[in-house]
Amino acid sequence: PVHLVESGGGSVQAGGSLNLSCIASELSFGNNCMGWFRQAPGKEREGVAVTYIGGGSTTYATSVKGRFTISKTAVPDMLYLQMNSLKPEDTAMYYCAAVVCSRGSSPGLGRSEYTYWGQGTQVTVSS
């Protein structure tokens, strides 16, 4: 079965940085759309940044544009989220997600679009 495992979360002060990682196994890495989502206590899970692994299309939530960068490596199959200039409102559990998608897809930030999910890694930003 497909397995996604996140790491890299932690506690930082506002203005700090963290780099989240997601390792994907049993996934045809090049034929997928993958991304990062987050869920704060009492709130809906929301899309943060998503990308077509085959190259090209990347979408960011307005709240993180210019601060977060999604990237990937093919060997090993890893997805990253570099988070800079962190704010207290970025505090949440961050999840890696994936779905099989077509060549040239423009993935969206909707939670329902994604099939596979990791267990999450906690990010806490203090003021």
List the helices and strands and how they pair.
Layout: E1 3-7, E2 10-13, E3 18-25, E4 32-39, E5 46-52, E6 58-60, E7 68-73, E8 78-83, E9 92-100, E10 116-117, E11 121-126
Parallel strand pairs: 2-11
Antiparallel strand pairs: 1-3, 3-8, 4-5, 4-9, 5-6, 7-8, 9-10, 9-11
Would you tell me the structural class of the helices and strands? Answer: mainly beta
User: Could you state the order of secondary-structure elements as H and E?
Assistant: EEEEEEEEEEE
Overall mean confidence score, pLDDT: 93
Strand content: over 45%
Largest sheet, described in full? 7 strands, mixed
Radius of gyration: 14 Å
Précis, in short:
With 127 residues, this protein is an all-beta fold. Helix content is 0%, strand content 50%. The chain has strands at 3-7, 10-13, 18-25, 32-39, 46-52, 58-60, 68-73, 78-83, 92-100, 116-117, 121-126.
Describe the fold and architecture.
The chain has strands spanning 3-7, 10-13, 18-25, 32-39, 46-52, 58-60, 68-73, 78-83, 92-100, 116-117, 121-126. The chain is mainly β and 127 residues long. Strands 2, 4, 5, 6, 9, 10 and 11 form a 7-stranded mixed beta sheet that branches. A 4-stranded antiparallel beta sheet has the order 1-3-8-7, with no helix packed on it. The radius of gyration is 14 Å and the shape is globular. The model has no long low-confidence stretch (mean pLDDT 93).
Search tags:
127 residues, mainly beta, globular, 4-stranded antiparallel sheet, 7-stranded mixed sheet, 11 strands
